[in-house]
Design brief:
mainly alpha; 5 helices; about 100 residues
Length: about 100
């Protein structure tokens, strides 16, 4: 019910099709970034689990050691994903539900 009211207010204030299209594109990009960040966090978590349990770093094994540029790039992407996922803690529940529905 409150979502319909919010949507109606949005449409009344910014009823141009361009604003609605921009909002839709921004929402889709946000959902995509959330999914990519989550996938990278899962990869990082599994890698840390392997390091903790078996002392085996899968990322460095796959990409040529911990000093290899590709390994470092993966580590940096996982760190950026962790920063992105921090934003999930501060988003409203309504926005999170809509992002995970599709």
């Amino acid at each position: 019910m409150t979502e319909n009211i919010k949507n109606n207010i949005f449409l009344k204030e910014n009823n141009s099709p361009m604003n609605i299209e921009k909002m839709f594109i921004r929402n889709e990009v946000g959902k995509m970034l959330d999914k990519i960040a989550l996938a990278l966090m899962i990869i990082g978590g599994l890698n840390w689990g392997l390091v903790g349990i078996f002392q085996f770093d899968l990322v460095s094994w796959l990409f040529g050691g911990t000093d290899a540029m590709l390994s470092r790039a993966v580590y940096i992407l996982v760190a950026i994903s962790a920063l992105w996922c921090i934003t999930l803690l501060f988003r409203s529940d309504e926005r999170l539900v809509r992002a995970t529905d599709s």
